[in-house]
Amino acid sequence: MRPRSNPRVVIAGGGLAGLACAKRLAEAGLPVTVLESQPYLGGRAGTFLDQDGEWIEQGLHLFPGAYSQFRALLRDIGRPPREVLYWTDDLRFETPSGPSALFGTNPLYAPLRTLLGALGNNDYLGPLAKLSLLPLLAPAALPEALLRRFDRLTVVDWWRRASGSQQALERALRPFCRAIQFTDAEQFSAYNLLGWAHQTLIRPLRARLGGYRGARDSEIFAPLAAHLKQRGVEIRTKVKLDEIEYDAKTDTITGFKLVGGEQLAADIYVVALPAWVFAPKIPQPLRSRPFFADILDLPTAPAISVQLWFDRVVTRRDGFTLVAGSNCPVYQDQSRYTYPYALGSRLSVIVSPADPLMGWDDAAIVAHVLADLGAANPKIAAAKVVKRVVLKHEHHLIRPLPGAMTRRPSQVTPIENLFLAGDWTQQEFFGSQEGAVRGGNACARAVLRAVNRGLGT
Asked: What residue ranges of the chain are covered by domains with CATH 3.90.660.10?
């Protein structure tokens, strides 16, 4: 869509949502400036080099095969998914001091593994427990819009009605909820769970899990930044938004004030910051309006990322492992494909729910992770940690409490020249990398529609 005029756009936030939005707008011919407070791009999906020259990630990220708009973005910037990603067609489950299981996830790419996994692994998930998941997940076949009614229920509420198998809850549903959205099943919206199942069900041949073939900075964000700069986008890092200036007489945004006092004026303003960063910057006169009041009220979930380097190989798997009965619900060995490390394994672990551990020091958190994972995988218990990195995120995504997912805002705000982009805005992939790209793309489409109606002329 080519705009009828050429208004200037400024985007606060250089994560996936802001960059995806900038890409669409620049390709349509609009002049765009992107502001990012960190010295690197990518936001919560970003990676950076530490003092040892090692890549550190904000948290473990997987790439489900259902991610279609993120795939398209990679192709557009000259990074075909086959070069950026490697694919796995199974998912391992472990329990501390209990059974483990390997389930195939794709009947096309791994038909035998998928069949045997469904029929076997009965010491981990018995036949009745497996069957109990069918009525629980059956609503995922409905159109996405009809799933929104499940946002009034938690996963446990829906499980009580549709399944009731304790084994299915503790060994399948709970680790999924903790791993995917950092929230326990008693708080997790059933709409969110069914929404993820829906996206897989409508794309069954893409029921795969992808890992990255390198740091996301070099594989994605550097090429994306180059793509944007070639199209005239100005990218400014290490600049932080301090205040959003609002004129009550015209009911418009008049500028972004940066930390340090610089005033940045444009015709159109896009906030691509996390909701919890945007909320305190909402101009005071706007906070009582229902649209902005809902943003102020959105719940958030913390997360802790733990990255561990070992003196030996502790797993030969390159895929993802879910851990039931633990608040270390998912880990991945990244030493072969993502961050090559010849001396042993390099694990990336998510601690979730992280709320009780946020006040712990790094040593206590690492000891807790090693105790839980070591009980599930004896090779981890026998290995020595040679390096550790712990990153605490007080806010990491919108917590999918009942009602929160349907309360997420649209990309269009009541202020005509203010737009929102992010995985926390309305789109079908909730808090995720695909959600961020979709939120950014939807924001760009909304801006271009407004420009064609005369905004900024």
From this structure: 300-398
